[in-house]
Write a structure and sequence with these properties.
Elements lengths: L35 H18 L8 H5 L13 E2 L1 H6 L9 H10 L7 E2 H12 L8 H13 L11 H15 L3 H6 L8 E3 H10 L6 H11 L5 E3 H9 L12 H10 L3 H21 L3 H6 L8 E2 L1 H10 L6 H11 E2 L7 E3 H15 L10 H4 L5 E4 L4 E4 L2 H10 L1
Antiparallel strand pairs: 1-2, 3-4, 5-7, 6-7, 8-9
């Protein structure tokens, strides 16, 4: 009675099952887990990591189920691997705990004890395609703590376009974020475009909290209106360097000049003397002071932090006393940009350069070799004897005339 019931001609009123109703389904059956919300969150994290790194999950285990000896442990080309192989080749083990791995194994374990990685890839693709996933309580608690830590970096929903770009630029500058690499993870062909959802994913990875209204505003500014976002234009607007005509941001030069006008004659004399000393030291050692500061200022904002200023001065081998450091920060410091004072090194380098020219009488001395400036005779390496000897200029001239 597999296909039909015998003797139906004698039982015309008998109810007959539909064709194939008695056949057993051989499809995959997911294992039951206790916390479905936790499982959905795990699958969502797997999908986000795979998309960010451009990884195809099925390729991680295909070598295990296609090798010559795979028939000894699992059927060949069955999209199934053993539990040990599943753990060994799982690409994100450092991002998931042992309890999460046990939940995945319990969910995708078959009757013969193998793991169906094909079903795992299908579920991850379905969730990644747009299914809404609610985070568990533990992740929500961690997200609340993270929002409290980054409360100072939140962007107001009523901010204008200029304020939005200015605050995003400040966040990127303070935290030294690399925007291009995160966007290129979603742009395999390097076309300079991504989707609006991928833009939101980049902000999530960088831990920049932004509202949906602000996201729509950015999409309207740097998008085509059809869901395509031109992230190269956005990065250029956020990280564009200052123009050469105005190398310093607006307000720094006037602020520094106003501070120097309020100095007394004694304080101004001490400041000028200190700048002349620094200029002489820089000229003697042939140091590029502005380049040293710019190594710590990737955004070319014209400011560095307090620790970065002292690091640059130590690199230049110029020791400052506490009184001298306070005098410089009193003149070139800017405490309005944040909690810690920032040092305006553009104006500082300009003042030091002018002080060096005025201290040298306005005439820049020609550069000479170090040995000549120190009153020593130049040396050369003698290939015959293998030692270093003093150069005799008269002998050199005689040999040149003889030739």
């Amino acid at each position: 009675e597999v296909f039909t019931t015998a003797g139906l001609e004698n039982k015309p009123t008998m109810v007959v099952d539909k064709p194939g109703a008695r056949l057993q389904t051989l499809g995959f059956r997911h294992g039951a887990v206790e916390d479905e919300r936790r499982l959905n969150h795990i699958l969502q994290r797997i999908g986000l990591l795979a998309n960010t790194r451009g990884l195809v999950l099925t390729t991680c285990w295909q070598d295990c189920e296609r090798s010559n000896a795979t028939s000894l442990v699992c059927p060949r080309f069955s999209s199934k691997v053993t539990i040990a192989q599943f753990k060994q080749h799982f690409p994100f083990t450092q991002h998931f705990s042992e309890a999460d791995m046990k939940m995945l194994i319990k969910r995708y374990r078959t009757d013969d004890g193998t793991i169906s990685f094909q079903e795992l890839d299908k579920d991850v693709s379905e969730i990644d395609s747009g299914a809404s996933v609610q985070r568990p309580d533990s992740s929500r608690a961690r997200a609340d703590k993270l929002s409290q830590l980054t409360a100072s970096l939140k962007i107001s929903a009523q901010a204008t376009t200029e304020d939005l770009l200015d605050k995003l630029q400040r966040i990127v500058s303070e935290r030294r974020l690399q925007l291009s690499g995160n966007f290129q993870d979603f742009d395999r062909f390097r076309r300079g475009v991504c989707s609006s959802s991928q833009l939101n994913a980049v902000f999530t990875i960088l831990r920049i909290e932004i509202s949906s209204q602000e996201l729509d505003k950015l999409a309207s500014l740097f998008g085509d209106g059809q869901g395509v976002f031109f992230y190269r234009d956005f990065i250029y607007a956020i990280t564009q360097p200052q123009s050469p005509e105005s190398p310093t941001p607006s307000g720094i030069s006037s602020m520094t000049s106003s501070k120097r006008q309020h100095h007394t004659l004694q304080v101004e004399a001490k400041l000028q003397e200190l700048e002349v000393q620094i200029a002489k030291h820089v000229r003697l050692m042939k140091l590029h002071m502005k380049s040293a500061f710019q190594d710590f200022d990737r955004m070319r904002s014209g400011r560095v932090s307090t620790s970065q200023f002292f690091r640059v001065m130590n690199m230049l081998q110029f020791k400052l006393t506490v009184e001298q450091a306070d005098l410089l920060f009193q003149t070139y410091g800017d405490s309005d940009m944040g909690q810690s004072p920032r040092f305006a090194y553009f104006d500082f380098c300009t003042s030091v350069q002018e002080a060096g020219l005025n201290g040298a009488g306005g005439i820049q001395q020609p550069e000479q070799p170090y040995s000549s400036r120190m009153g020593q005779r130049p040396k050369y390496f003698n290939l015959t004897t293998g030692g270093v000897m003093h150069l005799d200029r008269t002998k050199v001239l005689q040999r040149a005339c003889a030739r």
